[in-house]
Design goal:
Length: 155
């Protein structure tokens, strides 16, 4: 008999979760930022603190364990996916794809596109392209992507 599928769900974030969120973010980004020579624990924590908006943040939970973070907020006529971070041990198990599908479902329900940024040289770039995001711009330390509701084929 096959093993049961893991249960994945979201939990709300509160401001008091900052330390655990910061540790998760640092672990998730250390390798990608390190490749660019940009990893700094202080900068990582400052950036998270400046974007800490618990009302738009969600823990990604698998079988009762917090394994990721997702932030999604309104940005003009679109939704902005600011953070989608998974602990390294949770990567490659379909959790990120599940979270991204939840984002797309929310975007579809609201009739909004989704914008996001990824670091150059990050494995996340292949992930977003594979999941239907289109590169719309690039700067030295960011690649900009957009997923459009209107690009979906209606069967």
């Amino acid at each position: 008999m096959p093993a049961p599928l893991p249960r994945i769900y979201f939990e709300p974030v509160v401001a008091e979760d900052f330390e655990s969120l910061a540790a998760l973010r640092e672990t998730a980004l250390r390798e990608s930022l390190g490749r660019l020579g940009l990893f700094s624990q202080e900068r990582s924590r400052d950036r998270l603190r400046s974007n800490l908006r618990p009302e738009f943040m969600r823990h990604i939970v698998q079988d009762g364990e917090r394994v990721g973070l997702l932030t999604l907020w309104p940005q003009g006529d679109a939704l902005k996916l600011q953070h989608l971070h998974l602990a390294p041990e949770a990567q490659g198990r379909g959790i990120g794809a599940w979270a991204l599908e939840q984002v797309k479902a929310e975007a579809r329900a609201k009739g909004r596109d989704v914008n996001l940024e990824a670091l150059p040289q990050s494995d996340a770039n292949r992930f977003y392209l594979r999941d239907g995001f289109v590169k719309v711009g690039e700067e030295e330390f960011d690649i900009f992507y957009r997923w459009s509701v209107s690009q979906e084929v209606v069967a």
